[in-house]
Each structure stands twice: as structure tokens, then as C-alpha cells.
């Protein structure tokens, strides 16, 4: 008896650092991965699928997003249970209640809009703890667990599907809809619940001491700070505790590179680190640089980042101007064989660029521009 | 570039000509006008610039007029380190040859030769400067523009400390180009920056719009949730309230019934209370009546003896009063008698005084009357016998004449004396005379005199005739007198005099009349006086009548001496006063006692009245009491009262019981709660309806908007905004870099220019001072153009300078530029002065000659048709141009 546990599809999510076609590909990737999970469910003989919240990034997604999601859901051959999460709560504006969703929703797909038990297969009971507003006043999962009576003879496995942060994992206990692990584990200990499939955390994370609580992770990553995204879980309920198999399904990756840049070697290293990233077309990189470069090195850095921006889905270097100081070197000056007033101007800019003045950044930019224009002129 | 030799064949008017130039310093090419000096240099220029195959008009113009021949131009020149010979034929049988001498050497023909020549020129010659340094006649008056010369700039830059690579301006152009990608030439944001702003604004506005919509949607969703909750709460309230309201209604009904019961019982109790009250009143009235009778009887018994005693006292006092009154009457009679006596005396005295006064007044009236009478008589007399002074005088005059005539007659006339012996009566001339014995009567006899003794004799005496005249005179006089007397009605003069005297008296009487009246009236009118007399006369009459009527003793004493009367009055006053005092005292005593008696009487009267009233009331009350008791006796009254009391108590007890039940039921509270709960129920139902309406409305709205994909669109808009901001940030950084770079470059260039122009200026001034004197200075602009000349403190702009000065300064500038650019280096260019200095006076010419003569490095070519102009140049090589073909 296996089922596929996934969550946090966040369909319709937009990332500002993704422009144009990159965003389109990113969107498509998160649609495509649903198909891969459908295949996986077949492959691993899963009896049903639970999506533990945040199927949609918002309760008001674009029509195309909904249509594509429903299209992909058709590819599942087993019952699929969608749980409303904090991004798509089952409130009065819920996407799950709109005609365009309801009318086109495949028969094997059901929204867990309440806590009534569902029976996808004989001997299994699926209970949802849906979000019905963006600010629940209760611990929905614990309340759902505690509301359950003992399982009857016919029910061998009871799976609770919930959404929210767990203080023991996130470190914050007062978030809206936070799940109290002790209450959940008490229900597990009492045999009333056999597995709690959670969503909200985008990284695959087993939770607690029972081996029966866990986050599946998002099937495609959505942010830099996710520890283990791009996964789903195949849970085998027949073992005790259940066997939870982490299955990577994501194609995209986020990378945050922190790199000191003080000399050519550092730039070499940065280049090497960038080159080491697989599938750059589906990689999103944020480069955090710190150090002091001369003009030529700065030009090389800028060139490198510009070049990689063409091959990567996105290369962010938001603080480059603030964190990379410019200190023109003798070699820079050798590259700028100016005379007369041009040399004079160059020297003034050098003095400004290396000073502590507010204008240092501007002066450095002006020098970099000078290097380019003088160089261009030379080449011409 | 240095020019060594030029040769031409079939160029314009020159069949063949050649000149060789000094490598440095001045070469003067001298030839007459139209001899082809300029042609030579023009041909050289075309040699350098044009391909042999060119069809340009300037080249075609080289062909001599009317000759279909090729024009050959050949020159030997140095470009940088290379010396070369160039040879071209234009228009016919065209050809180009280039020979590079020295080194590895090179010989090229055709376009290759031309191209190579251009290459070498570009590499080694500043053609801009070359063109600038060709001073032609006329053009030399313009200020030289040297700013475009790369060579000069390089040299100046070198001197100013630059490398002289000449790349700065090109770089600056590129920087400016970069700047102008972002800004207008004046520094306003350009299209890129504006577009970026527009893009951010649009993205911001799109994002804000979506955010507002999303927020509104979310607010609606929250509101729906809140309303849902409220709906549930209100419905629960209604469920709770409905049974409560029903229960309250039952309770209120029971309260209403009890209230009716209480009302009935209360009415009954009220009736019982009224009966009780009536019985109590009857009893109280009976008791009060009995008490009143008893009290009245007591009062009457107490008051009766008091009243009797008071009456007795009053009787006594009245007797005393009576006695006093008799005594008073006696005294008053005495007083009255004394007063009457005195008054009578006073009246008599008064009567005397009045009479005296009246007499006085009447005397006055009589005097007035007399005066008036006298006056009237006088007036009448005066009127009866009017006598004027003239008439009187006439009488007197006539009389005097009579007496004169008589005297005269008497003198002549006999006189008669009658002597009476005894008493007798005689008549003389008819007039009787009584004569006593012894009397004598003398008479003159004017004519006749007659004496008669009646019954005894008549004697007539006649005067003689001599007397006739006298007598006539006398008669005449008498006639006149008689006439005069007749006139005034008198007999004679005596009568006339008497009449006059009488009239005088009359007049006096008339005159005195008013004085008398005024004096007697004493300021009164006559009427007042008469009135006064009449009044007093009447008063006096009345007084006299009164006194007479009295007929007492006193009245007999009339009239009475006034003084004695007054004394008697005084005596009687005293008597009267004494009698009055006695009477007054008795009157006072009597009045006091009378008052006492009056008061006592009044009091007694009041007491008696009161007593009578009390007795009357007692009788009445007693009668009423008796009647009441007859109707219902006191015991019956008490019994009725007891019955009524018991009945009232019973009724009140019943009311109390009913009220107790009502209180127990909480009547007020029940109604209050019922009303309140009903109101709450109504309010809740209304609220429920309102909530339901709003929910429906909101749900429809949310359903409609929820389907629009706002959430995803908002995320996309936020991302787009962030990207637009990022793009703008980067663009602005680039723009700022370009701005900073340009500004820095321009500042540096401006600073450099000042230093950069200095060597040229300094050279021009140094040479110029030889020509213009030690005070010369000049100003150069950025284009290295002379814009002004200074001599001491006098500054003249270029256009203000004389043609000569402009020409001289142009030559000096060109010379300085040639010196700076080339000096003795290979890349200089020759300075060509083509027919210049036409405007220069001999002295300046000489000085300029000295300057030109001092030139060592640059090559200077002077073309002139006036050789003398340039004789002043020391060391100049002079070449005379002539057509060697002709020669």
C-alpha cells in the first residue's frame, strides 16, 4: 500500500528575476513535473496521491495556469486529493470553488475542503485539514487529528493531510496555522493516525520521532533558501514505521554563490563555480560578491556575469555595486595610455574612485566606461 | 612636408616652368601679375589631391586655353623621413608616377602611386594645417583658424605635457556620444532614461491597480468570513430569543390579568376608605360641635361680668364729662362776651379810620372836580371872548390915543367940578354917581357935559368951538377905541384889561388842571379813585349800618376819637385774651375726658357686641347639636365608624394579596424583558436579512473577480515592477557614469586649453612685439583663433583692427603656427604667403621683413609681383618665375 505525497506546487508563481522566456520555462517546468509525478505514481504502484497544500500560488491564478494544471492532473490514474493551503485556502474566493476549476476537475481528483474522511481504497482513510482562511485561528492539523476517533476494524491506515509550519523544524512556533507536533504525535501514539503528510516547507523533511510525519518538499524549487527541494515522497504504509522514499523530480535549481573577489584567482574560482552548475538554462543563480577589484578585473567580472546571464535562467548580483570596491591598478593605467587633459580627467576619476567619497562608485563606473571607450577607440 | 621643386608643363598660361625652393627659411617667388605664381601652387595642390583620371573642373581648368594637351605637374618633396618625386599628367595622356628616394626606394605608377602618396600624406602631413597656412591675398585678412590642425594640437599638447598622440578629442567625442545616449546635449534626460521612467511608472501603476483590486478582493473575502460568522451568531441569537419571547408573552398575559384584579380590588378598597372617612368625619364633626358649644358657653360666662363692669365705668366718666362741659360753657360765654366787646370797639375804631380815609378821598375828588370845572369855565370863557394880544394892544393903543386926545382936549376944554354939600345922587352924562357930603367930582367938558340931579335939576355945559378939532380927534380916538372894544366885546380899556387878566387866569387854571389831577390821584386813575370812594363808601355804610344795628352803648359814642378808640381796643384785647385762656384750658380738659369716654364707650360697645355674638352663636350651635343628636346620637356614630374601619381593612388586605402575587410575578421586569427580547429578536431578524443581503452581494462580486486571475497577475506585475526598477537602476548607473566621465573630461579639457594655447600665443606675441611694439598682447580662443589685440590697455577685437594690422597678425600667427607645427622637424608644412602685405606700411613692412628673415626652421614661400615688398627679408632666397618654354 503506497501513496505519493507531494505539496507546494505553487502553480502561477512569478519570480521577478526571471524575465521573458525564463519565466515561461519556469512555469512550464512546474506544470511538467506534475506529469512526471503521475508517471512516478504509476511506476511505483501508488494507490493514491495527496497534494498537501499550495497547489496554486494564489487563489486567483491565471486561467491558463488552472487549465494546464487540470490537464496534467488528468494524467494520474489513481485518486488525487488536493488540500487547500495557506496560498489557496478554501475561503470564499477559493480557486477550488470556481466553476472553471469545478467544471473541468477530473473525476479522480478531489479537493479536501473539509475534514470528512475519504476512502481512496479499501482499508485506507484520508483525512484533510484544509485551510479555510489565510489566518486560521487554530492548529488545523492537531484539531483534525484530535477529532478523529479510533480506527475501526476495516480501516488499517489513516492518513492525515495537513499544511503549515512545524516549530521544531522551522524554529518559529507562532506562525499562522503552525502545527503542534506533540498533539499530532499523541494521535499517532494513540493509533488514531498512521501518517501525517505535510506541505508548506519546500524541502523534503521528515519530522519528529515517529517516522510518520513529514514534508514532501516542493517538486520544483522556488527560492534560494530551500534546503532540499525538487522532491516528492513515495510512502509505503505497509511497513512500521512507513517507508518514506524521497524521490527527486525537479529539473530546476537555485544557487546562491557567495564569493570573495579580490584578485584574478577569485574571478577564476567564480567562473569555475558557475561552470560547475548543471543545466544552467534551468538554473537560477544569485551571486553575492565581496572584495576589491581593479578596473580590468571589474570589467572581466561584469563581462563574466553578462555572459552567464545569457546562458543561465537568471543571474542576480544585486549588491555588486555596493560590495565590490574598485581600486584601479598600474596595469589599468597602462591600458589607458591617455595624454593631456584625458590623462588629467582619468587621474581625477581615479582619485575619486579610490576615495571614501559617496561618489566613489560613480567614479568607478565612469572609469570602467572610460576603459571601455578608450579600448573601443583603440580597437577602432 | 617640405617642398623642394615644382615643375609644370601646359598648365594654364605656363608652357613650362620650374621653381626650386630653399629647404628652410624664406623663398620669394617673384613674377609679374598673371605670370602664374598662384597657378604653380594650385597645380601642386591638385598633384597631391587628385587622381590623374579625374574629370573635375578644377583639373580641366589646368589645360591651356584652346590646346588639347595634357597638363604635367611634377614636384619633389619630403614627407617625414622620405623624399619623393611625384609626377602626374592630367586631362590628356594621363599618368601618375611616384618615386620614393633613399632607403629601399619605391617606384609606383597609376592609382597605386596616387594611393601610396595619399597614405604617406595622411601619415606625415597635416593637410588641414597646410591649407590653413596658405595665406592668399584677401584671405590673409581673416583671422587664422588653427584649431582643426592635429599637428598643431599635438605640438601644443606636447608642450603642455601631453603625449601628443592626438587621441583625446576622438575619445571625448566617444564619451560625448555615450553621454548623449542617455542625455540631451544640454543634459536633460534622454529617451532611454525617460522610457525607463515611463516603464517603471507604468509597471508601478499596473501593480498598484492590481494590488488595490487584490486587496479589495481580500477585504471582501474577509468580510464574507466575518459576515458568515455573524450570520451564524445572529441565527443562534434568533433561535435563543424566539422561545424566550414566547415565555415572556405568557407571563405578560398573566400580569395583565392580575393587574385587572388588583384594579377591581383597589376600587373596592377605595370605596371602603371613603366610607370610613365619612364616618370618621361625622364623628369628628360631632365631637367638634360639642366642644364648640362647650367652649362658647364658657366664653359667654366669662365675658358677661366684664362687660357690665365696663359699662358702669363708662357711666361715671360720662357724668364727669357733663360737669366739665357746663363749666366750659360758662367760660366760653365769658370769652365770647369779651371778644364781642372788643370786636365792637375794633369796629368803631375801624369805622373812624374808614370815614377819615373816605373824607380824604372825597376831598381829592372834589379838588379834581373843581380843577376840571375851573378848566371848563376857563375854556368856555376863553372861547366866549377870544382876545388876541393884537386886539388888546389895539384897545390899549386906542385908549392911549383917547387919553391923549382927552388930555389935549382937557387942556383946552373947560372943566367942571361938582362939590357935594350933602349926600346925594347925581347923574353925569346919564351915569349915576353917589356922592357923599364933601365929595368932589371933576369932569372935563369935551363938547357937552350933562349933570342931572334927579327931580331937582339938569345942568348942561357946552364946550366952545375951539375945541372942535380936539374934539374931533377925541371922537375919532374914541371911535377907534369903541371899535376896538366892540371887537373884543368890552366897553373900555379897563374892561379889556380885566378881560385880559381874566383870560390870563383862565389860562392858568387850564395849565394847573393836570397838575392838580396828578397830585390828587397819587398814581391812581380817576376811575380807581372813584371806585375806591364807592367801595369805601359802601363799606363804611355797611359798617355804620352794622354798628347802628347793634345799637349798643358803644355805638352811641360815634364819632369817636381814633386814639381813644385804639386805647380801648387794647384794653378789651387783654380782657378777651384772659377769658380765652380760661376757656382753652377747660376745652383741653373736656376734650381729653371726652376722648377717654369715647374710647371706653367704643370698647364697651365692642365687648357688648362680641358678647352678643357669642351668645347668638352659642344659641345656634346648641340648637345644631341638639338637632344632630336628635338625628343620630353619639353612640350610633361610633358604631358606624367601627364598622367602616373593619370593612376598609378587609378590602386593603385583598389588594395586598393580589399585589403580592403581581410582585412575585415580576410584572415590570416581565414586560421590560418581553419588550427587550422582542426588540432584540426584531433587530436580529433585520440584521440577519442585512447580513444575508450583503453576503449575497459580496459572494457574487468575489466570484466574478476571483475568476480574473488577479493573484497571478499581481505577482507578475510586482515582478515586472521590480525588473523595471532594476533596469532603470542599471540604466541610471550607466547614465551617471557617462555623465561623470563627460563632466570630468570637459573640466579637464577646459583646464588644459588654457595651458595649451599658451605656447602659440607666446610665439605670436614675441614676434609681434617686433612689429607692434613691446606692449602687444593677443587673445586666442579655443579654436586658436586670434580674437583680439591689445596694445597696453587698449583692446581691439579682430574685426575692429585695420586691414593692415589684421594682415600682419595673420602672417605672424601663421608663422608662429608653422614654427610650432614644423619647426625644423619633418612633419611641418610650408607657409605660403600669396601676394600678401599689400596693406602694410613701409615701417611695419620692414619690421615684418626682419621677423620673416629670422625664420630658420619652417619653410616659407612668398609669392609676389612686387619684389620690393620683400626686399626687407634678410637671407631670403629670391626666385623669378618665367616660362622656360618661352625662354
Give the helix level of chain B as a range of percent. 55-70%
Main β-sheet, spatial strand arrangement of chain A: 4-3-2-1-10-11
Any guess at the CATH architecture of the largest domain in chain A? 4-Layer Sandwich
Structural class by helix and strand composition of chain A = alpha/beta
Task: Enumerate the strands of the largest sheet of chain B in spatial order, edge to edge or round the barrel.
Answer: 2-1-4-5-6-7
Look up the CATH topology of the largest domain in chain A.
Purple Acid Phosphatase, chain A, domain 2
Provide keyphrases for this structure:
heterodimer, A: 380 residues, alpha/beta, Purple Acid Phosphatase, chain A, domain 2, 2 domains, six-stranded mixed β-sheet, five-stranded mixed β-sheet, 12 helices, 20% strand, elongated, B: 887 residues, alpha+beta, six-stranded antiparallel β-sheet, five-stranded parallel β-sheet, 18 helices, 67% helix, 13% strand
Amino acid at each position: 500500500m503506497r501513496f505519493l505525497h507531494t505539496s507546494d506546487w505553487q502553480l502561477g508563481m512569478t519570480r521577478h528575476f526571471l524575465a521573458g522566456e525564463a519565466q515561461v520555462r519556469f512555469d512550464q517546468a512546474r506544470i511538467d513535473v506534475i506529469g512526471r509525478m503521475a508517471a512516478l505514481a504509476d511506476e511505483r504502484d501508488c494507490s493514491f496521491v495527496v497534494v498537501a497544500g499550495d497547489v496554486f500560488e494564489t487563489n486567483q491564478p491565471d486561467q491558463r495556469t488552472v487549465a494546464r494544471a487540470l490537464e496534467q492532473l488528468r494524467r494520474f490514474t489513481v485518486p488525487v486529493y488536493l488540500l487547500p493551503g495557506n496560498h489557496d485556502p478554501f475561503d470564499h474566493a477559493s480557486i477550488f470553488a470556481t466553476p472553471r476549476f469545478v467544471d473541468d476537475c477530473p473525476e479522480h481528483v478531489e479537493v479536501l475542503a473539509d475534514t470528512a474522511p475519504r476512502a481512496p481504497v479499501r482499508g485506507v482513510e484520508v483525512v484533510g485539514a484544509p485551510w479555510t482562511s489565510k489566518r486560521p485561528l487554530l492548529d488545523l492539523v492537531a484539531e483534525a487529528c484530535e477529532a478523529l476517533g479510533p480506527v475501526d476494524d476495516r480501516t488499517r491506515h489513516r492518513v492525515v493531510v495537513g499544511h503549515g509550519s512545524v516549530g521544531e523544524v522551522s524554529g518559529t512556533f507562532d506562525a499562522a496555522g503552525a502545527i503542534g507536533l506533540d498533539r499530532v504525535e499523541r494521535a499517532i501514539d494513540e493509533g488514531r493516525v498512521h501518517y501525517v503528510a505535510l506541505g508548506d516547507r519546500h524541502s523534503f523533511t521528515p519530522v519528529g520521532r515517529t517516522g510518520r510525519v513529514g514534508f514532501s518538499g516542493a517538486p520544483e524549487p522556488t527560492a534560494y533558501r530551500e534546503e532540499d527541494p525538487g522532491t516528492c515522497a513515495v510512502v509505503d504504509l505497509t511497513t512500521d514505521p512507513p517507508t518514506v522514499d524521497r524521490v527527486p523530480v525537479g529539473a530546476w535549481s537555485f544557487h546562491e554563490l557567495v564569493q570573495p573577489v579580490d584578485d584574478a584567482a577569485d574571478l577564476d574560482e567564480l567562473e569555475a563555480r558557475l561552470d560547475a552548475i548543471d543545466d544552467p538554462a534551468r538554473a537560477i543563480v544569485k551571486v553575492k560578491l565581496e572584495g576589491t577589484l581593479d578596473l580590468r578585473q571589474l570589467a572581466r567580472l561584469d563581462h563574466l556575469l553578462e555572459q552567464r546571464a545569457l546562458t543561465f535562467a537568471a543571474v542576480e548580483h544585486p549588491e555588486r555595486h555596493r560590495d565590490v570596491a574598485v581600486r584601479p591598478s598600474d596595469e589599468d593605467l597602462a591600458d589607458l595610455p591617455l595624454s593631456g587633459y584625458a590623462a588629467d580627467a582619468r587621474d581625477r576619476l581615479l582619485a575619486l574612485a579610490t576615495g571614501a567619497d559617496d561618489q566613489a562608485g560613480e567614479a568607478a563606473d565612469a572609469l570602467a566606461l572610460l576603459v571601455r571607450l578608450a579600448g573601443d577607440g583603440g580597437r577602432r | 612636408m617640405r617642398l623642394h621643386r615644382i615643375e609644370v608643363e601646359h598648365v594654364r598660361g605656363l608652357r613650362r616652368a620650374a621653381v626650386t625652393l630653399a629647404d628652410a627659411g624664406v623663398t620669394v617667388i617673384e613674377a609679374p601679375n598673371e605670370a602664374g605664381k598662384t597657378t604653380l601652387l594650385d597645380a601642386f595642390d591638385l598633384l597631391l589631391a587628385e587622381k590623374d583620371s579625374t574629370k573635375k573642373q578644377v583639373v580641366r581648368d589646368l589645360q591651356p586655353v584652346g590646346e588639347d594637351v595634357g597638363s604635367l605637374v611634377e614636384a619633389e618633396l619630403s614627407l617625414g623621413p622620405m623624399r619623393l618625386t611625384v609626377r602626374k599628367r592630367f586631362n590628356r595622356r594621363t599618368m601618375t608616377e611616384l618615386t620614393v628616394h633613399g632607403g629601399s626606394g619605391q617606384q609606383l605608377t597609376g592609382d597605386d602611386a596616387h594611393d601610396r602618396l595619399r597614405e604617406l600624406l595622411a601619415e606625415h602631413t597635416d593637410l588641414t594645417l597646410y591649407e590653413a597656412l596658405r595665406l592668399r591675398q584677401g584671405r590673409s585678412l581673416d583671422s587664422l583658424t588653427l584649431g582643426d590642425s592635429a599637428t598643431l594640437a599635438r605640438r601644443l599638447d606636447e608642450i603642455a605635457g601631453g603625449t601628443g598622440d592626438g587621441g583625446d578629442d576622438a575619445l571625448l567625442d566617444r564619451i560625448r556620444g555615450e553621454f548623449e545616449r542617455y542625455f540631451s546635449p544640454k543634459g536633460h534626460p534622454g529617451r532611454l532614461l525617460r522610457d525607463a521612467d515611463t516603464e517603471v511608472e507604468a509597471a508601478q501603476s499596473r501593480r498598484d491597480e492590481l494590488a488595490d483590486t487584490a486587496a479589495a478582493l481580500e477585504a471582501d473575502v474577509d468580510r464574507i468570513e466575518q459576515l458568515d460568522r455573524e450570520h451564524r451568531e445572529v441565527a443562534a441569537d434568533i433561535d435563543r430569543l424566539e422561545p424566550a419571547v414566547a415565555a415572556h408573552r405568557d407571563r405578560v398575559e398573566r400580569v395583565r390579568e392580575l393587574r385587572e384584579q388588583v384594579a377591581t380590588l383597589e376600587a373596592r378598597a377605595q370605596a371602603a376608605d371613603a366610607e370610613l372617612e365619612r364616618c370618621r368625619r361625622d364623628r369628628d364633626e360631632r365631637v367638634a360641635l360639642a366642644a364648640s358649644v362647650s367652649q362658647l358657653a364658657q366664653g359667654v360666662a366669662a365675658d358677661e361680668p366684664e362687660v357690665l363692669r365696663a359699662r358702669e365705668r363708662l357711666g361715671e366718666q360720662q357724668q364727669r364729662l357733663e360737669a366739665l362741659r357746663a363749666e366750659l360753657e360758662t367760660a366760653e360765654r365769658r370769652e365770647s362776651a369779651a371778644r364781642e366787646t372788643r370786636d365792637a370797639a375794633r369796629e368803631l375804631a375801624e369805622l373812624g379810620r374808614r370815614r377819615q380815609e373816605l373824607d380824604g378821598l372825597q376831598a381829592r375828588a372834589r379838588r379834581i372836580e373843581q380843577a376840571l370845572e375851573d378848566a371848563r369855565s376857563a375854556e368856555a370863557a376863553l372861547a366866549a371872548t377870544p382876545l388876541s394880544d393884537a386886539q388888546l394892544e389895539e384897545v390899549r393903543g386906542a385908549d392911549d390915543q383917547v387919553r391923549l386926545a382927552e388930555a389935549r382936549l382937557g387942556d383946552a376944554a373947560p372943566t367942571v367940578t361938582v362939590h357935594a354939600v350933602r349926600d346925594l345922587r347925581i347923574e353925569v352924562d346919564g351915569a349915576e354917581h353917589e356922592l357923599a357930603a364933601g365929595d368932589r367930582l371933576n369932569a372935563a367938558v369935551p363938547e357937552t357935559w350933562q349933570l342931572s340931579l334927579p327931580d331937582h335939576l339938569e345942568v348942561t355945559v357946552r364946550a366952545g368951538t375951539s375945541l372942535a378939532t380936539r374934539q374931533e380927534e377925541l371922537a375919532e380916538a374914541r371911535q377907534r377905541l369903541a371899535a376896538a372894544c366892540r371887537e373884543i366885546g368890552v366897553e373900555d380899556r379897563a374892561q379889556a384889561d380885566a378881560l385880559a387878566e381874566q383870560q390870563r387866569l383862565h389860562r392858568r387854571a387850564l395849565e394847573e388842571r393836570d397838575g392838580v389831577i396828578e397830585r390828587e390821584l397819587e398814581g391812581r386813575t380817576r376811575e380807581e379813585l372813584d371806585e375806591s370812594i364807592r367801595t369805601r363808601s359802601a363799606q363804611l355804610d355797611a359798617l355804620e349800618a352794622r354798628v347802628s344795628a347793634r345799637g349798643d352803648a358803644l355805638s352811641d359814642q360815634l364819632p369817636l376819637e381814633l386814639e381813644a378808640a385804639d386805647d380801648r381796643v387794647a384794653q378789651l384785647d387783654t380782657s378777651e385774651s384772659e377769658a380765652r385762656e380760661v376757656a382753652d384750658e377747660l376745652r383741653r380738659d373736656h376734650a381729653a375726658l371726652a376722648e377717654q369716654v369715647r374710647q371706653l364707650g367704643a370698647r364697651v360697645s365692642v365687648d357688648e357686641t362680641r358678647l352678643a355674638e357669642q351668645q347668638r352663636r352659642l344659641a345656634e350651635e346648641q340648637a345644631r347639636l341638639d338637632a344632630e343628636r336628635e338625628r343620630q346620637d353619639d353612640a350610633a356614630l361610633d358604631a358606624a365608624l367601627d364598622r367602616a374601619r373593619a370593612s376598609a381593612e378587609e378590602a386593603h388586605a385583598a389588594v395586598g394579596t393580589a399585589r403580592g402575587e403581581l410582585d412575585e410575578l415580576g410584572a415590570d421586569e416581565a414586560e421590560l424583558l418581553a419588550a427587550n427580547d422582542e426588540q432584540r429578536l426584531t433587530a436580529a431578524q433585520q440584521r440577519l436579512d442585512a447580513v444575508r443581503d450583503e453576503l449575497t452581494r459580496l459572494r457574487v462580486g468575489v466570484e466574478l473577480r476571483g475568476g480574473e486571475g488577479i493573484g497571478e497577475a499581481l505577482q507578475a506585475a510586482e515582478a515586472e515592477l521590480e525588473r523595471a526598477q532594476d533596469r532603470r537602476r542599471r540604466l541610471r548607473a550607466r547614465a551617471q557614469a557617462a555623465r561623470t566621465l563627460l563632466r570630468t573630461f570637459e573640466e579637464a579639457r577646459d583646464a588644459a586649453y588654457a595651458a595649451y594655447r599658451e605656447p602659440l600665443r607666446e610665439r605670436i606675441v614675441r614676434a609681434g612685439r617686433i612689429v607692434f611694439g613691446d606692449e602687444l598682447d593677443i587673445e586666442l580662443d579655443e579654436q586658436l583663433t586670434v580674437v583680439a589685440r591689445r596694445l597696453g590697455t587698449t583692446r581691439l577685437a579682430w574685426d575692429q583692427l585695420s586691414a593692415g594690422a589684421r594682415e600682419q597678425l595673420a602672417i605672424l600667427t601663421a608663422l608662429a603656427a608653422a614654427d610650432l607645427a614644423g619647426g625644423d622637424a619633418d612633419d611641418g608644412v610650408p607657409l605660403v604667403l600669396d601676394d600678401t602685405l599689400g596693406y602694410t606700411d613701409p615701417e611695419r613692412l620692414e619690421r615684418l621683413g626682419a621677423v620673416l628673415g629670422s625664420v630658420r626652421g619652417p619653410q616659407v614661400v612668398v609669392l609676389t609681383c612686387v619684389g620690393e615688398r620683400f626686399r626687407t627679408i634678410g637671407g631670403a632666397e629670391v626666385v623669378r618665375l618665367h616660362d622656360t618654354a618661352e625662354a
